[in-house]
Amino acid sequence: MEQLLLHLRNLGFTEMESKIMVELATKGQASGYEVAKQLGVSRSNVYAALQRLTQQGYVRCGEGEPARYSVLNPEELATMISGRVQASLAYMESEMPRGGPVSPSFYNVEGDRNVLGALIRQLNMAEQEIVVDMWREEASLLRSELEQAELRGVRLLWAFDGGNAAPATYPVWPPLGRDSKRTDGRKFSFVIDRSWCMLGMRYEDGSAQAVVTEHPVLVDLLLNHFAQEMVLFELEQDMGAELEERYGERYSKINSKYVMHDPVDDGEEQAQ
């Protein structure tokens, strides 16, 4: 029930209107007084909402005293709402003013639903190329959109962590100082058509945070990072044994040169 009410509100109905429509659909037909009594709200509010719904055509008012109301069946409702939404979208697209150029900016997206929603919208608009770097758990949530993009002829370049075929894991940079940070998340990044990118983190509790931008600096950084990681991955696949034989322990030392330890921890160790 709550999900149905949520979706009705998403379609533009108020909370009162949504509850009335569901109540009428459940009962078949009812008077305003009966609806108000069942919902436990004032009759004046119910009659005002019924008047709006009747004027818009979503609810029918029958003859008689007291008047009895009924809501359109689900198929009729869906057809009417869809037609009006499509007409409004078409008008908005053609008549919305188009201003001058906008400087690229960064904006945050909070919440798993909002992050995935923003990604899905952009994936569905991809025309040429999608570069994906994420874990398989998150990739599975976007499988349909990625497959549809490939069917449209969009080039898909991907790196999935969390499986046997995944590239080598990235070095972990410890935080500077003692500020506690969440460590249960999985990072991901997308670059679409080399002009839009999202960089974010999805956590075990289902929450998510991301940064979205069209700024060319971050777009280039993510593309270069992806290319370097994939080149290194392929080199290690082809020459892993040779690299290990040639560099031995020095191979790990090269990496440790650039992934520094927390200086506070180093100071404590030296003090001990």
From TrEMBL:
Q: Which UniProt keywords apply?
A: DNA-binding
Q: What highest taxon heads this organism's lineage?
A: Bacteria
* All residue ranges annotated as the Transcription regulator TrmB N-terminal domain in the record: 8-75
Query: One short Pfam family name for this protein?
Result: TrmB
Q: Which CDD domains match?
A: HTH_ARSR, PLDc_like_TrmB_middle
- Asked if the Swiss-Prot or TrEMBL record annotates the protein with the keyword Cell division, the reply is no
Stated name of the protein: Transcription regulator TrmB N-terminal domain-containing protein
Q: Which organism is it from?
A: Paenibacillus pseudetheri
Q: What is the lineage of its organism?
A: Bacteria, Bacillati, Bacillota, Bacilli, Bacillales
